Structure formats: C-alpha cells, structure tokens
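Hi everyone, sorry if this is the wrong subforum. Our group has a chain we'd like a structural model of before ordering constructs, and none of us has done structure prediction before. Sequence below.
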Amino acid sequence: MKSTTLNSKSRTRRSSPQPKANDSRRARLAILIAGTAWLLGCSHADPLQPPPPPRPSPPPQGDSTAVLTAAKDNTLYETALGELSNGAGEYFFVGRTGSGRLRRGLIGFDIAAGLPSGATVTSVSLTFHMSRTIVGPESIAVHNVLAEWGESTSNSNVLGGGGGAPSAPGDATWIHTFFDTSLWVSPGGDFSTASSAAEPVDTVGFYNWSTPQMAADVQAWLDDPSKNFGWILIGPENMTSTKRFDTRENTTGMFRPRLTVRYKPAP
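Answer:
Right subforum, don't worry. Here is the predicted structure as tokens:
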C-alpha cells in the first residue's frame, strides 16, 4: 500500500505545470515581438501623436495669367448739357459730392488684344488705387456698360479733377457717349441693372473687385469684341459718398488700374 501511494504522488509531481518555464517563454516571445516592431519602424501610430497637417493643394495646372492695363477711362459728371468731362485727367470720381452732384467712373480694357483667341477665362481681378475720400467705407459697384463711349483730351487736373473740365470732342459725358455727336439712351450711362461686383472702399489704398460674373463679362468680351464696352463704377448716390480713383494717366505707374486675368489657352 505504501509503495502504491508513493508512485501515485511521484506521477502527480512529474505531471504538474512548470510556471517558471512558461513565464520565461512568454518573456522571450514579448521581447521578440517588441524587437520586430522596432525593426519595422514602429508602424503602429501613437494614439497621442497628432496627425500630420494636410499637404497644400497643388496650383491649377495649365492656367496662364495676363495683366492688362486700361485702354481708356473717364468720369461722368452730372450735368444737364454734358459740358464736363475728364478724359485725359489723372483721376476719376465715383459717388455723390457734398453739393449733391453725382459722379460715375468708366473704364475699358482691350481684352481681344490681351488674351489669345479661344481662351477660357477662369478668374479676373480688377485693381484700383483710391487716392482721396471725404467719407468712410462705402460699397462701390461695378456694372457692365451697354454702349461704346469715348475718352478724349479734356483734363481737369489743374482744377483738382473733382469739378471736371470742358468736354472735348469724343469725350463721354453724363448725356453723351461721344461729345457732342451721340447720346446715351439714359443720362448717366447705359449699363446692366445688376452689378457684376461690389466692394467696400474705405481709406486710401488699393482695392480689388473679383467675382465669377466679372470673369463671365471678360469671357463674353473675348468671344465677341464688338460687345466690349467696359465697366462703370457707381457708389451710393443718396448720400455724400465721393471717392477719387487714379486713372491710366496717373503719373505714378503703380497706381494705374489693371486687370489680372487667369485663363486656360485654347487646346
């Protein structure tokens, strides 16, 4: 009986688990896994590490840029007879004067000469330098002009520009497209009722007008140059709001108006 008991206990001892050996194997396995992850560059992301910033989008491919200078500009001075203009002056004026007279600015660009035929206009930016004001911020709107108009030799620089100079033959005036042989349908100019853009203008400095509708205007002028009559700038006309803008004749080159056009050339 004693022998049987001892043999049973011996077998029991031999078949019992070996915790120390198992722990050792687990430790070696953990070290192996950690080492493999290190060799692979620790590919698992650290949940506490913020993701890298997104890469900036690449610029549009295939677009070209043209910077056009104004072909003509003028001021429409509100008068019943159209006797005032400023075709060759350094400035044009927009808004309502302190004496209650209205001023509107005309500008035109030779789109067909500045862009290749068949191009697709993707965006435009019209830049002006505003050099004098008698009021704070005012919204200045740009409208598509509907009739051809002129710039001649009238020049009110010696008078400061704001009052205008005697109209010269071929000048646009409040009532004339070309002084004094042809008239606007409506005094003050013929233009689209809806504006192509509007921009708040405050203190002296540079201002840009840029909208899809302006790009559509330029595209239409490129496709059919016979309808390119430029834009007219109009400010608030129910209150004093006059702003003075520099024209293409301004003696400081960087102050002259410019039209920046991005386009895709024809395939």
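For your construct planning: The chain has four helices and 15 strands. The mean pLDDT is 85.
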